[in-house]
């Protein structure tokens, strides 16, 4: 997903050419593709992502024409990377996010993927994922996606409790989720489900029901995210007016602990603070690429890209984005070259959240000195630390942000 607010940065050149740093040692780095589909049938009350309903789109932005525009950016990307001296690499992961990618016809998603394959090729065993709402797929659309090369679908289930879904403004009914999961499995796709905990009015029993219901579908992967109230969202306004209660950190912790216990009992192991997989091969390799700072090109309005420490982001609104593409220009409106301190900070922030942990050798001296205190506070596993890896305990996962702050004094 792509956040609604873009960062500040330096102007991005219209030709998309990257600094020489981008090509340095690129042959040894993985390459992935993110495709942002910015359309939703309804804007969910908690959502702060760069998405638009049909009534919010101005002239020049069209769902009908979007696939062709995205294909143009894919071709532009391949040319820009080549002109920048970045060696050709096949795509290892592709992720269609949004928004709701499956609001577009499956044929459109297949066409975008096909153009990417024409330009770069797919690495053997490549992972190709699309997000989907349970009410935005059919058996036929999922069969078509599988035939086109998609390997995985991530369903936005969020909850199995109607009153919780209503607060979140989700449009599907709970009974639609197992149906969609079955269709995906029949098509030969791996299945992930996304859950959200901590919605105002959600009891612990409600959350337990949602987790148990999700597990009954036997997914390969589950993501469970604490609800965050973003300024400017409908949900934030409702809380401010006192219509619904605010979120509660203790409630979040109780629900995380319950989920982790139930996921573990069902055979899913955590590999990142908010993600669990049935086997290591079921982990979302595209997200792992983000957490390990691999290379990826982001297609679509507001999408972010990263190659060799160079990061850039596209025009936010679909109309502005489409205009730049139609003119043959880079859709990027800003970019930055990450300095050593920023790359170190992000490396620690992201790798510390992984079940593989972060090597103590990657830490600066002040970070290594903090490890003993983190062990004493029960936040870091002592055996792993002795072996040279900083690995969060269950308590440490609950306080992951605090751990990172102590590793980065």
TrEMBL record:
The record's Gene3D superfamilies line, in alphabetical order, gives: Aldolase class I (3.20.20.70)
Q: Where is the Radical SAM core domain?
A: 25-272
Q: Name one Pfam family in it.
A: Radical_SAM
For this UniProt record, the keywords arranged alphabetically read as follows:
4Fe-4S, Chaperone, Cytoplasm, Heme, Iron, Iron-sulfur, Metal-binding, S-adenosyl-L-methionine
Q: What is its main location?
A: cytoplasm
Q: Would you say which domain of life the source belongs to?
A: Bacteria
Q: Where in the cell is it found?
A: Cytoplasm
GO molecular function list: 4 iron, 4 sulfur cluster binding; coproporphyrinogen oxidase activity; metal ion binding
Q: Could you tell me the Gene Ontology terms of the biological process aspect for this record?
A: porphyrin-containing compound biosynthetic process
Name the GO cellular-component terms. cytoplasm
> What does this protein's UniProt record list under function?
Probably acts as a heme chaperone, transferring heme to an unknown acceptor. Binds one molecule of heme per monomer, possibly covalently. Binds 1 [4Fe-4S] cluster. The cluster is coordinated with 3 cysteines and an exchangeable S-adenosyl-L-methionine.
What family does the database annotate? Belongs to the anaerobic coproporphyrinogen-III oxidase family. HemW subfamily.
Name of the protein: Heme chaperone HemW
Species name for this entry? Answer: Arthrobacter caoxuetaonis
